[in-house]
Design brief:
alpha+beta, five-stranded antiparallel sheet, six-stranded mixed sheet
């Protein structure tokens, strides 16, 4: 009997404990916390995400390059859509057809029946105003605001890049930040500084009534979080300089890169052909992207960091510096130029018969023979066991100047250029090769390619007398103007400072002496130092190249200009470089040069299109107006003084991307 009595109280006690637990849980859920209420699926409570404005991007003088403007996305929760919805009225309101309605709705259902998805993106302000008045007629639909990019000056597309909707891979790799329908930087600084530019997303827990009308934030907004705008970026670009560079390169293929030597800040970053960055914004972005993808001359290519060009004669100052450092030449070392250099079965021709010529005039005259002798002396030094060892040491010294190595610019997709080690040539030629086999490298041709950025950086190294700061496009981040530490460090190339002045003397004469090859780059009142190059191109007319810096003392700008299929470096690249440098150093171009500048802007230098099988008949629209303008009398050409690498018998493979 006692056992039954005890068992009764045990069972009663268990029921009491269970009841207390249930009551306590119910009290916690309903009174102590709103956590479960907020997380529950409900017809009256929705999470409305507020998207932060991306950080504004400025030029170096804080003029905006990329701003934001408001747009509105129409969202849908498929499970809440009324089966009797007036779809025709909604389609008319947002200007789509029934086929698109069904496609968008089915896509949203495939993502989730219970979570909001984008139904139609980027509605205009006018469409949003009309729709918001009638939104209560369409249960399951609501509007979410966000900002998109706007580019007020429509320049620097390759620098700025573009943003696109996230892919499943982006979502997976984001650590939970991105959701379907979000946007992410896909190229340019929009990509490389994405985590700073995007800001932090906010959320509003909005109450809706049975008629789909918003009634305000739940709990007076205590559980809401505000969006935090992205950091502002102050770029190193000079807007005026960038505009001038893009205008000069209009209807041409190539690149202009200008750097401030003392800081490594990139002043101009021109890739041509370019495009209006506003094309990569809005509802037509996808169509515009596909059009650019198949357009002639590949406007999406970022030539300053992806284009491969043989440096040509612009490589000669670098090799001379290595020769001086190694002690195989000094400023007074003289070689005889009979108009060519011959080694074994290879002959490299020179444009001139210079006779006995020393370093300074050799650089000013761009003497191929002098450059070949320097290269020969470097690779036949007795301190090396053989020329293969000597070559490996030489190419390592060249790499310190940036050729064959990525410079680490703050943009994605930078390429390293092309420079091979001795193992490559041993594999190609077995053990039977020497400096004669690769003599084209002496004049910057053969199996060597550099990007325009690398060429401009070499000029910054020479301007600084032996070091460079990593080239970069963003000089300050946020209100506190933070800059990455790697963009203030000096990188030395292991050439003594005393060796630079003899080379700079030659580059000064190339621009300013009567016999120089770059006299078209002269600037009145400013001592410009430079070097022209005429780069061999087996697929058409040679490329026009100029590299240089100004002024000679305390240089403010280093520059590289490449114009594809434009012939001599003195004809197009050198004048363009002088216009850019003068604009930057003086703040404007003199009136006596404005006609020359306008003439240059109008020139059309594009690769010839593939030959048609059948020649079309002339139409009445054909006229002389479509032909390039005549050179003004003030712009004389000096092609007869320009040494040409096309006359070398060593035929390199030229790749341009």
């Amino acid at each position: 009997m006692d056992k039954l009595f005890n068992r009764k109280y045990v069972i009663q006690g268990l029921f009491i404990v269970i009841a207390l637990i249930l009551l306590g849980t119910l009290f916690y859920i309903q009174v102590a916390t709103d956590k479960y209420f907020i997380s529950a699926e409900s017809n009256v409570l929705r999470k409305i995400y507020s998207f932060p404005a991306r950080g504004v991007i400025f030029d170096r003088h804080e003029k905006p390059l990329a701003q934001n403007e408001a747009v509105y996305d129409l969202m849908v929760i498929p499970n809440q859509v009324d089966t009797l919805l007036d779809t025709m009225a909604l389609c008319k309101m947002i200007d789509i057809d029934m086929k698109r309605f069904e496609r968008n709705f089915n896509k949203a259902k495939a993502q989730s029946r219970y979570q909001p998805s984008i139904f139609e993106r980027q509605l205009s302000v006018h469409t949003y105003a009309t729709l918001s008045e009638q939104l209560s007629r369409f249960p399951g639909f609501f509007v979410q605001s966000r900002t998109i990019r706007h580019y007020p000056d429509s320049v620097a597309a390759h620098f700025l890049g573009y943003i696109k909707e996230v892919t499943p891979k982006d979502i997976k790799n984001s650590g939970g930040y991105y959701r379907s329908g979000d946007y992410i930087g896909k190229s340019g600084v929009e990509k490389s500084y994405e985590t700073l530019l995007r800001g932090e997303r906010g959320v509003v827990r909005m109450m809706y009534d049975v008629k789909n009308v918003p009634k305000g934030s739940y709990a007076e907004g205590r559980f809401d979080t505000a969006a935090v705008s992205g950091d502002r970026l102050i770029s190193s670009l000079d807007l005026k300089l960038q505009k001038l560079g893009e205008e000069l390169m209009h209807n041409k293929v190539g690149s202009i890169v200008a750097i401030e030597p003392a800081s490594g800040e990139i002043l101009a970053f021109v890739s041509s052909p370019s495009y209006d960055p506003n094309l990569m914004v809005g509802r037509q972005q996808g169509n515009n992207y596909m059009s650019l993808l198949v357009a002639p001359n590949r406007p999406l290519n970022i030539r300053p960091i992806q284009g491969y060009y043989s440096p040509g004669s612009s490589f000669k100052p670098l090799d001379a510096l290595i020769g001086l450092q190694e002690g195989v030449i000094d400023p007074n070392t003289t070689f005889n130029c009979p108009g060519y250099f011959r080694v074994g079965n290879h002959t490299v021709k020179c444009e001139h018969v210079d006779g006995n010529i020393a370093l300074r005039k050799g650089l000013a005259r761009s003497c191929n023979t002098y450059a070949c002798y320097v290269f020969q002396k470097l690779l036949t030094q007795r301190k090396y066991a053989n020329q293969r060892v000597a070559y490996d040491d030489w190419q390592k010294k060249v790499r310190k100047f940036g050729i064959g190595e990525k410079l680490g610019i703050d943009l994605p997709s930078e390429k390293a250029g092309r420079l091979y080690d001795a193992a490559y040539y041993s594999g190609k030629y077995s053990k039977y090769w020497n400096h004669g086999t690769i003599i084209s490298l002496a004049i910057g041709q053969g199996e060597m390619d550099a990007t325009p950025l690398q060429m401009a950086n070499i000029m910054a190294i020479i301007a600084n007398r032996g070091y460079y700061i990593k080239p970069h496009l963003v000089k300050a981040i946020g209100k506190n103007r933070v800059i990455k530490k790697e963009y203030v460090k000096k990188n030395y190339v292991d050439v003594d400072a005393r060796h630079f002045d003899p080379v700079i003397d030659g580059m000064q004469d190339a621009v300013n002496a009567p016999w120089g090859t770059a006299i078209q780059s002269r600037i009145e009142g400013i001592l410009m130092c430079g070097k022209t190059g005429t780069v061999q191109n087996p697929r058409g007319k040679n490329h026009s190249v100029f590299i240089g810096f100004a002024p000679r003392d305390n240089p403010k700008i280093a520059i590289a200009v490449i114009v594809e299929n434009a012939g001599y470096g003195s004809t197009y690249a050198a004048p363009m470089a002088s216009y850019i440098a003068e604009q930057y150093l003086k703040g404007s171009l003199p009136k006596n040069k404005l006609a020359q500048v306008e003439w240059m802007k109008k020139q059309v230098i594009l690769p010839a299109p593939p030959k048609a099988k059948f020649k079309p008949k002339a139409t009445p629209t054909d006229s002389a107006a479509t032909k390039p303008a005549t050179t003004p009398a003030t712009l004389t050409r000096t092609e007869h003084t320009q040494p040409s690498a096309t006359q070398t018998t060593v035929k390199p493979i030229q790749r341009t991307q």
